[in-house]
Each structure stands twice: as C-alpha cells, then as structure tokens.
C-alpha cells in the first residue's frame, strides 16, 4: 500500500514543527546578525562569536558547566548502572516495587521541588554551596535517567551468558567487567550522554544549589537576558543547541545500535539460522 | 562399571524453591566415562539437578560428590565441570576463537598453550574456517558447536549438557547426536546430558535416569528402560505402549496368567510377579511386538484377540494400526505396528477389516504401578 502524504498530514507536520523549531531557528539566524539590535537584521556576520571568545565571564561559566556535566554524568552513570543492576537482577525482594518506583519518581518530580529540597539539605548539612553541590544535585536527578536507560538494556540480557563465564572459571566481579559491561555498554554510554546533556542545560536545580564562583552557563545567560538580549547570548545559545543536539543524536544512535545488538543476541539465544 | 567407586554422586539431595520441591531426596551414582542422561518432562527437576552439580544452585539438603570431592561451598567458577547451555550463552562481543579461549585464559595458561588448545577444539568441532567470526555471523548448528568447543576446551572432569540440541532441526539434531557420541569416545570424558527428548537420550546415553516430580523413577540402560520399564510412567514416557489393565488369575513357576479387561483376551507370560492372585496389574506391550493379520482367533487361545481396524497412520517405514478390541461399547484400542517391508501388498489391511492381534509370551511386561 503506497499512499502519498495527505494535505492534512503535510499541514500538521509543518505547523507542528514550526511551532517547535521556529523560535530556535530565529535564534540561530539572529546569532549571525551584524546589528547590535536583536530585532533588526543588519547583515551576516560572525562577530558575536568572535567577541564571545573574549567574554571572560561567559567562558568561565561555560567551563564550569562542562566540568559539572562531565563529573555528574560520570558519577550518575556508575550509580544509575548499579541501581539498574540491582532492580533487574536481584529478583523479588521486599520493597522491590517501592524501590523501582522511587528510582523513577525524580523523572516526574517538579524541578523546583527537587532543587528546593536539595538546597534545604545542603543548608541543613551546613555545606557551603558551590561547584560540588551542583555536581551532587545533578548526579541525583541524572542518575534516574541512566537507571532507566540501562535497565531497558538489562531486561533483554540472557543471564546464562554470565553463568557461562563463571562456569568457565571467571569470578563474579571479573565476569561483570569482561562480559556484562561490554554487552550493556551501549546502554551505559547512552545513559551517560543523556545525563551529560541534562546537566548541560539545567537552570532550575543549578540556581538552587549553586553558590558564589560556580555560575553555570544557563544561569549566566538567564541573568544577562534579564538585562536585555544581546546577539552574543544568541551566539552562546546557538552553540549550546548544537552541543545538545549532538549529544541527543549520539545517545539515540547508541540506543539504536543497542537495539540491533539486542536483536542479534536474541537470535543467538534462540539459535536461529543467522 | 558399578564395581568402581562412583565418579559423581548425589547423596540424599533435596532442593526446594519456597514451597516447591524441585528435587526430592534424590540419590544417584554416575560412573567415570559414562554418557549419562537425565530424562524427564519439564519441571521434573532434571535441570535443577544439573545446575546444582555446576554450582548455580545450592542444595537445600544433601551432598554432591565429584571425583571423591564434596562440592559443598565450592563456587561455580572453581568447579572442575563445564556446562553447555541450552541457549548456548556465547559471548556476543567475542569471536569464536575468543569464546573458546575464554575459559583457558582464566586458568592462566600461557598464550601458546591457549592457542594450541583453541586450535585443537576448532579442529574437533570442524570450526576452523569460522574462528574469526562473531556468534551472530554463525548458523544455529555452528553456534551449537562453538558452545561445545568452549565447554570442552578446559578438559573438564565432566561435561554438562543442558538440552544441547533443542534448538536444532531434526536432521541436524540426529547428526549432532552421533557427533557428540564420537567426541565423547575420543575424549573419554564423563558426559551428563539433560533432555526431555527420549529419542535423544536413547541414542546418546549409556544409561538413562528417568525423572518425575523431583524423583528418580528408573535408572537403567536404554534397552532396559524400553524393554523392561518398571512403571506405567516409564513405559508411557519412553516410546509408544499399549497398557492393558488385567487381574492375576494363575501363578506358577513357569509364569503368570492374566485376565484382561478386554473380553476374550487372556495373557500368559513367562514373567513371574509378586502380585497376588486377584490383584490388579497392567500388562505393557509395545506396538511393534503385536502381530496383526486378517482373520479370527482360535477359540480359547491365549495372547490373541479379535479386532476391528479403526485407524491407520501411515508413516512410510511403518504403519501404526489402531484396532478396536473387546466389547464394542468400551472403546478399547490396541495399537500394532506393521512394518511396510514390501512396496505393494496384495491384500493390505485396511479400515473396518476384521483382524487378529497376537503376541508372544515374552513380548510384554507386567507392571504393578
């Protein structure tokens, strides 16, 4: 059945995608604006990207953001993978559904609440806020996403592959690193990239948990925009959009590879003719 | 062989999963170089028994010995047995070579020893040209051979095979069964196979243990299990059988006489039984031991009965003929196998023919339970 797109389909596609992406496209276009006035087109130029290179404040903020994203994504990946392993592997234990529910709760919890509660915690602990508190906060919420992604990879995992490794003389911990981890690696990598991207563009939780000297890029942009939008901000945002897009695409590619691999594994498991 | 001390011994082994008893107080001895089969339906505890030997399950009570050593407390990765998994469980991210070498590397063998052994295994399983391939680039039969090579590479004291041929098609399965037997003869390793396929067990094994509900029902050679089953369960599980309900009417030194529930069928056998006169027993007779011919039986002859051909299953090499015997309203069916030795028969047995079914005095066995 070959049916061309109907007018209705085309229209809804155009309307939907314009709704989603027109603002971003505008932002990208205006980042190349020669004029200092954001709303007036004054010709093509990359001068705002160049002046960005000399904006110490923005560069500092970007550097903080990258470090926060890298560290928190890495820690979240380790913790999230461990959580996923426990939830998938340990069979039925008392409170298992409570635990799995609690892992997913932060996914739907309003960021303001999460940020506020973390702030209260850090205050109660008499912890001076800054770089490390932001990392802790980002690790906390990114971990859930990692757990979800890794869990989906583990569900289709044939446990007898691990048993085979142990049967051949490989102790359990070594088995995890030699067998389990390489097989679930696409899921782990996708989880890391997701966590990295989430941390990169988080504003709410970072504002609650940060302190002096640890201003992230989204926070910097937000505070500058309140004083008026400059083409420089447009340029920064364009770079952020590109980075996040690349992260999401890479994560989805890894997930797709994982899907293909999973199908292969299943065929291995059922011993079908390959 | 039973003069030797057992190589593998299960002593009063019980395994419970919650309320469910998978293996119930089971004792079993397996001898060195045996090809031993655990046979039973799904959920009979055969796989659990094997997994306890491999170290993946811990017995609730009882002991397991391998080559004189009590296996209690020894984790799976230190046991001198290797297992071939039903799903093959190949490492998907490693090539065939690396899969086979994996266990050897755990033993800290030198690189040259590892590669020598891998080559030997590749040769044994005829996989030389696939050494560099990943598991997903192999057919089912090739994967099965990789799994076999991997589990044999460490020269285990005993090779455990968990439904190893279940995923293969019939022709390949039969070929592989003979290959397994040849490999076992060549390596002289003790093989323990778990299967639900009675033909497979009969083909490959020296001895078979038939299991039901976590217990051993009969442990014997394939021929004994087939020709002298010790219960209706075994007779029915292995191959095709006619089970005729009967009562003991005469006992003498030369044998036993049974009166069957089928009118007109009295059975005389050479077999003695410890059942008393008047006790209810079953007479088990295989269809291929029932002779079928046109005609009526001689009056008062034993081991003969008149029948009416009801159904014929033509299988090519043989036909299985179902005949109604005894009182018409009771629907007693006696199955007889008819070997199709000639291509054309002048007067073939066909539907609604009146036939006589007969068998020898030693054709069947009396079963009490």
What would you say about this model in short?
The complex is a heterodimer of chains A (274) and B (369). With 274 residues, chain A is an all-alpha fold. Chain A is 77% helix and 0% strand.
Overall pLDDT metric of chain A: 85
User: Given the structure, what is the number of helices of chain B?
Assistant: 8
Mean pLDDT of chain B: 91
Task: List how many beta strands of chain B DSSP finds.
Answer: 20
The first-to-last residue Cα distance of chain B is 29 Å
The CATH H-level superfamily of chain A is MetI-like
Number of domains of chain B: 2
- What portion of the residues of chain B fall into strands of 2 or more residues? 25-35%
Main-sheet strand order of chain B equals: 6-7-8-3-9-10
The ordered string of helix (H) and strand (E) elements of chain A is: HHHHHHHHHHH
CATH topology of the largest domain in chain B: Rossmann fold
What is the structural class of chain A? mainly alpha
Using only CA atoms, what is the Rg of chain A?
23 Å
Q: Please give the radius of gyration of chain B in angstroms.
A: 25 Å
Instruction: Provide the low-confidence segments of chain A as ranges.
Output: none
Give the class-level CATH name of the largest domain in chain B. Alpha Beta
**Share of β-strand residues of chain A:** under 5%
The CATH class label of chain A is Mainly Alpha
At the fourth level of CATH, the homologous superfamily of the largest domain in chain B is P-loop containing nucleotide triphosphate hydrolases
Summarize the amount of helix of chain B as a percent range: 10-25%
Can you tell me about this structure?
The complex is a heterodimer of chains A (274) and B (369). Chain A is mostly helical. Chain A has a single domain, classed as MetI-like fold (Orthogonal Bundle), CATH 1.10.3720.10. Helices cover 77% and strands 0% of the residues of chain A. Chain B has 369 residues and is of the alpha+beta class. Chain B folds into two domains: 229 residues, P-loop containing nucleotide triphosphate hydrolases (Rossmann fold), CATH 3.40.50; 127 residues, Nucleic acid-binding proteins (OB fold (Dihydrolipoamide Acetyltransferase, E2P), Beta Barrel), CATH 2.40.50.140. Chain B is built from eight helices and 20 strands. In chain B, strands 6-7-8-3-9-10 form a six-stranded mixed beta sheet, sandwiched between helices. Chain B has a five-stranded antiparallel beta sheet with strand order 13-12-11-14-20. In chain B, helix 3 crosses helix 4. The longest helix of chain B has 18 residues. The chains are: A mainly alpha (274), B alpha+beta (369). Chains A and B meet through helix 7, helix 8 and helix 11 of A and strand 6, helix 2 and helix 4 of B.
């Amino acid at each position: 059945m070959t049916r061309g797109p109907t007018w209705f389909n085309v229209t809804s596609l155009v309307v939907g995608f314009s709704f989603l992406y027109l603002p971003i496209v505008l932002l990208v276009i205006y980042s190349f604006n020669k004029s200092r006035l954001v709303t007036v087109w004054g010709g093509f130029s990359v001068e705002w990207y160049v002046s960005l290179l000399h904006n110490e404040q923005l560069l500092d903020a970007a550097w903080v953001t990258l470090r926060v994203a890298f560290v928190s994504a890495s820690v979240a990946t380790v913790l999230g993978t461990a959580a996923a392993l426990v939830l998938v592997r340990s069979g039925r234990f008392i409170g298992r559904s409570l635990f799995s529910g609690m892992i997913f709760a932060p996914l739907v919890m309003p960021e303001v609440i999460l940020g506020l509660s973390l702030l209260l915690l850090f205050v109660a602990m008499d912890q001076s806020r800054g770089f490390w508190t932001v990392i802790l906060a980002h690790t906390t919420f990114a971990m859930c996403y990692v757990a979800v992604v890794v869990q989906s990879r583990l569900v289709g995992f044939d446990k007898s592959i691990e048993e085979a490794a142990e049967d051949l003389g490989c102790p359990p911990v070594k088995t995890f690193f030699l067998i389990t981890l390489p097989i679930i690696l696409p899921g782990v990598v996708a989880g890391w990239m997701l966590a990295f991207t989430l941390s990169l563009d988080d504003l709410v939780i970072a504002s609650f948990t940060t302190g002096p000297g640890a201003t992230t890029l989204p926070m910097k942009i937000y505070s500058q925009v309140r004083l008026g939008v400059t083409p420089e901000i447009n340029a920064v945002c364009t770079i952020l959009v590109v980075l996040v897009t690349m992260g999401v695409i890479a994560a989805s590619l890894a997930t797709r590879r994982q899907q293909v691999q999973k199908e292969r594994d299943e065929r291995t498991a059922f011993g079908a003719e390959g | 062989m039973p003069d030797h001390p057992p190589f593998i011994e299960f002593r009063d082994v019980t395994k419970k999963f919650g309320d469910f008893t998978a293996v119930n107080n089971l004792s079993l001895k397996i001898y060195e170089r045996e090809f031993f089969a655990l046979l039973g339906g799904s959920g009979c505890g055969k796989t659990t028994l094997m997994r306890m030997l491999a170290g993946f399950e811990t017995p609730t009570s009882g002991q397991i010995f391998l080559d004189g050593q009590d296996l209690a407390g020894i984790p799976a990765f230190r046991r001198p047995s290797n297992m071939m998994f039903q799903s093959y469980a190949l490492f998907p991210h490693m090539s065939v070579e690396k899969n086979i070498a994996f266990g050897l590397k755990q033993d800290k063998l030198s690189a040259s020893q590892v590669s020598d052994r891998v080559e030997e295994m590749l040769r044994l399983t005829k996989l030389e040209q696939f050494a560099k391939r990943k598991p997903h680039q192999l057919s089912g039969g090739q994967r099965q051979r990789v799994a076999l090579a991997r589990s044999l590479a460490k020269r285990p004291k005993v090779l455990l095979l968990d439904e190893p041929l279940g995923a293969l098609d019939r022709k390949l399965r039969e070929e592989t069964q003979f290959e397994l037997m040849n490999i076992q003869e060549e390596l002289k390793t003790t093989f323990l196979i778990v299967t639900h396929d009675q033909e497979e067990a009969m083909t490959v094994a020296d001895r078979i243990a038939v299991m039901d509900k976590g217990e051993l029902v009969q442990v014997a050679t394939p021929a004994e299990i087939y020709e002298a089953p010790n219960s209706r369960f075994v007779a029915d599980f292995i191959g095709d059988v006619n089970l005729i309900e009967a009562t003991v009417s005469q006992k003498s030194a030369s044998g036993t006489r049974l009166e069957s529930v089928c009118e007109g069928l009295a059975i005389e056998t050479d077999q003695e039984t410890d059942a008393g006169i008047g006790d209810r027993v079953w007479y088990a007779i295989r269809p291929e031991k029932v002779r079928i011919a046109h005609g009526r039986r001689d009056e008062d002859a034993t081991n003969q009965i008149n029948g009416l051909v009801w159904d014929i299953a033509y299988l090519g090499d043989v036909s299985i003929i179902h005949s109604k015997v005894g009182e018409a309203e009771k629907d007693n069916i006696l199955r007889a196998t008819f070997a199709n030795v000639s291509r054309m028969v002048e007067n073939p047995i066909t539907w609604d023919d009146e036939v006589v079914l007969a068998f020898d005095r030693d054709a069947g066995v009396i079963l009490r339970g």
